[in-house]
Amino acid sequence: MTFYRTFRHGAKSYDIINRMLAYVFPNRYDLVVVDLNFGLGRFYRKARKRITNLIGVDILKHEWETKPDVFYQMPSQLFVYKVIKGEIELPQHVDLVVVDPPWSQEKQGVFPREIGISHMPYHIKNVNTNAIIMAAKKLTAHLHAKLLYRYKECLTCNHIIRVDAKVTIMNNKGVIHYGICSFES
C-alpha cells in the first residue's frame, strides 16, 4: 500500500516530509539522509528526530533552520561524482537521498531586484535542474537508497520506479510533487 495525499496550498514542506518519512520508515529513528540541495534545512524541522545522520550538500552555506551533521559546500553533481569515485566517504548505509532542485522562478538565476526577493540563495546563472535530478538518481542507485524528491512534475526514468509515498500540492501557480521512490533495474 502506498501513501498518497493531495493538499491545497498552505501545506508546509516540513509537515509533508515528516508524514512521508513516518509512513515509509515507521518506527525508525536512525535514518541516514543525504540532501543534495540542503538550503536552510527547512525540510527537517519536524523530521529531524527520525534522523541520526543528516548530510547536507549545497552550493552556498546558509543560516540553517536545521543544522546538518556534515555539510559539503559544492554543486550536487560534483558531490555525486566524488562519492561514486570514492573521494568522499559516506556512512555504510544511507536510507534516503533528497533532491529539491532549484526550479522555481526565483531559483533559476533571476536576480533578486528583478523579482523583488533578496533572500533567495540561488542567484546563479546556468543552474541545470535536469542535471541535478540525474545526479540524484545516480547517487540513489549507487547507494541502494530511496529517493525523496520535490519537483514540479513526477520523476521518471528508464528503470522501474516503485513509489512508496506521493504527495501533491495544488496552488494558484500550479502543482508541486513530493515523492519517495525506489529505482529497480
Topology:
Layout: E1 3-8, H1 13-24, E2 31-35, E3 51-58, E4 70-73, H2 76-85, E5 96-99, H3 112-115, H4 129-143, E6 146-151, E7 160-171, E8 174-184
Parallel strand pairs: 1-7, 2-3, 2-5, 3-4, 5-6
Antiparallel strand pairs: 6-8, 7-8
Helix pairs in contact: 2-4
Describe this structure in words.
The chain has 185 residues and is α/β, with parallel strands linked by helices. It has a single domain (13-151), classed as Rossmann fold (3-Layer(aba) Sandwich), CATH 3.40.50. 22% of the residues lie in helices and 30% in strands. The chain is built from 4 helices and 8 strands. It has helices at residues 13-24, 76-85, 112-115, 129-143; strands at residues 3-8, 31-35, 51-58, 70-73, 96-99, 146-151, 160-171, 174-184. It has an 8-stranded mixed β-sheet, sandwiched between helices. A hairpin with a 2-residue loop joins strand 7 and strand 8 (174-184). Helix 2 (76-85) packs parallel to helix 4 (129-143). The chain is globular and about 40 Å long. The two termini are 21 Å apart. The model is unreliable at 105-123 (pLDDT under 50).
CATH topology label: Rossmann fold
Which percent band covers the strand fraction?
25-35%
What count of structural domains? 1
Question: In angstroms, what is the radius of gyration?
Answer: 16 Å
* Mean pLDDT over the residues: 78
Spans of at least 5 consecutive residues with low confidence: 105-123
Q: Report the helical percentage.
A: 10-25%
SSE order, as H and E? EHEEEHEHHEEE
User: What top-tier CATH class fits best?
Assistant: Alpha Beta
Question: Could you name the key traits of this structure?
Answer:
eight-stranded mixed sheet; alpha/beta; 8 strands; 4 helices; 185 residues; Rossmann fold
